[in-house]
Amino acid sequence: MTTAPPVSGLPAYSDYVSHIERAPERVAARWPFIALIVLGILLVAAPLVTGMFPRAIKGEAMIDAFRPQITAVSIQNYRDDLGVLDRARANVIALQANGGQPGSFERVDKFVQDYPGIRADISGMVDRIDANRDNYGKLSGTTPFGVLPWLLALPGVLLIAAGGFGLRAVRDGRRGVFWNAVAALAGLGLLVVPLTGGLFQAAPAAQPLINDFRPILTHAEVRTVQGYFVTLVAADGELNSRYVGAVRAAHPEADLTGVKELEARWQPMTARFAGLVGVLNDNVENFDAVVALNDSTKPLGVTAFRALGWGFVIPGVLALGLAAAGLRGTGSRRADSTGGASA
Hints:
Helices cover 74% and strands 3% of the residues. It contains 13 helices and three strands. It has a three-stranded antiparallel β-sheet with strand order 1-2-3, with no helix packed on it. Strand 2 and strand 3 form a beta hairpin. The chain is rod-shaped and about 105 Å long. The C terminus is likely disordered.
């Protein structure tokens, strides 16, 4: 049996096809990385432009300083102290009315005269503090204020790095998958902060607290309250050193219940009062910094505390979207049989 000779003279497949088509390769687009750089710059610039770094630290210091003064127990102690002063003044007025006070006592008389104004001012201050206990609790329960600017700036630095190195990878013909992943992690970090740090819950609490504390956290008000303290200390000193002895000598049976109650409570009362005055005095500048921070975004039509949660969420969502866009790519290239590529 003989084998047929091979057919010759027929054209080869390669004579018809100049090159072999391959599936198009996806290539990374540059614009998502450029957008990541821009977004990162904005995140780094935001706390710098608004003065958030020093102002947030002062806000955190103010919250810490008021913590002992704003408890239910402290508020009740202040009100009880005012009640003791009420009864001591009423006691002196009663003695004056029935002739039980022998002679004139300048410092005690000044206390009797000035106390209604002192009481109204201090009582109003205590009421303002008490009315904002819930607002204070929401603000103090957030991520510490001093950390917040870093939680904006550091993801911003990561996004700048991801965008810059991602562009280099694209220029070298790679897709920059790793740098898209870095951008996505930075975006997730931005989303986590307001969701776990209570920023949205605290946003409505800031403005009422600022409005109510504004009249009491001024240098003028602190000086006024310090003057009250001087009046009270002087009156108590005269009551103890001269007044009680003089009344007892002239009228042994005189009722001094209110004055004696003041004497018994004086030491803890003055410690609380001095503590409150000290906190007010030490936090005027801190409060001013908080107000300035809150007002820093007013040109955008919203106060800073109202916008704070969204200031993390919006760039976080944008970072995730840009990372996804970078992974998808927007172009392709074809490779020929020799490995060459055409755009």
